[in-house]
Amino acid sequence: MPPSADLDAREALALRSVPMMIFSDGSASSMTPPPKSTLESDPAVGAQKRFSVTGNAVVTGGAGVLGIHACDALLEHGLEGLMILDVNPAQSQGQIAGLQNKFPRAKIMALKVDVTDENAVNAAMEETARVLGSIDTLICFVGVVGCVETLDMPVPQWRKILDINTTGSFICAQAAARQMVKRGRGGSIVFVASISAHRVNYPQPQAAYNVSKSALLMLKSCLAAEWARGRMGAPSELTGTVVLLASSAGSYINGADIVADGGGIVL
Fold first, then answer.
1. Cα distance between residue 164 and residue 183, in whole Å
2. Can you tell me the distance from the alpha carbon of 260 to that of 52, in angstroms, rounded to the nearest whole number?
3. CB-based contacts of 59: which residues, under 8 Å, 6+ apart?
4. Which of 122-136, 196-210, 228-242 comes out lowest in average pLDDT?
């Protein structure tokens, strides 16, 4: 029943029906089955597949130190195509050339893109999907830090930091997700935040940066709630987290609460 005209806006909101938040009505057609188990009869094959990376990735801020290291690791684990988006990819031409030499089988490219420019980002994602064939993974490293005392911080600088770190990541996620939806197979979107998203990091005077990274965490949760494909999980999907934490790949993860629940914790 539609809300009556005499209800105020807040009361009317409580009467809305939001189908996307209903996981299933119990019928077979409303439920997505869990994926097939990743366990293999050959242990070596299983170990290799567990951390294999297939398809193509877009990495924003990919010309920076953290971005380049991430790109190297993705390619090392099997990534087939890589598009680096950076406002100044020329600063890391040597590192990008190094990746191309180290991984000659992969298609590795870079585009100069300002992530706050919606039209430029959309064009870059469309070009990436056209040239590489798909966008399977997006990793957002792009970010800037501004250390200014809040009493002295110019409002334009505050806006710039949030525009790049938070809004820029949203623009990239939206554009990449649209390409994933077109393809009908989904994909992975990763935001790189900061410990400053969890604590103030005082006495560093970086209120805008801290706020931008905290907002990025909430953006992550909102997109997970809206975009996830609801389904049950399989026991084998926990194994990657366990192996990560037990291996050298997780050597700097300490005291963390890692939730592998398909995104249920955000709801």
1. 28
2. 19
3. 67, 70, 71, 74, 82, 83, 84, 85, 138, 139, 141
4. 228-242
Residue 243 three-state SS: helix
15 assigned to some structural domain: no
Cβ 142 vs Cβ 169: under 8 Å: yes
Whether the Cβ atoms of residue 266 and residue 218 lie closer than 8 Å to each other: no
In this structure, is residue 233 part of a structural domain? yes
Residue 46 forms part of a structural domain: no
Q: Looking at this protein, which amino acid is placed at residue 133? A: G
Cis check for the bond before 34: say yes or no (omega within 30 of 0): no
Render pLDDT for 176-212 as a digit per residue (tens, 0 to 9): 999 999 988 889 999 999 999 999 988 989 999 999 9
Ordered DSSP codes for 192-207: ---GGGTS--TTS--H
Domain span including residue 99: 53-246+257-266
Spacing of C-alpha 183 from chain mean position: 18
Torsion of CA 222, 228, 230, 232, to 10 degrees: -100
For residue 149, what is the domain's CATH number? 3.40.50.720
Q: Cβ(84)–Cβ(109) under 8 Å?
A: yes
* Residues 148/127, Cβ–Cβ less than 8 Å: no
Nearest-angstrom CA–CA distance, 192 and 27: 38
Residues 6+ apart with CB under 8 A from 260: 233, 237, 238, 241
What's the number of domains the chain is made of? Answer: 1
Average pLDDT over the chain reads 88
Looking at the domain assignment, is residue 45 inside a domain? Answer: no
In 14-63, where do the E strands start and end?
Answer: 56-60
**Considering the entire predicted model, what is its pTM?**
0.84
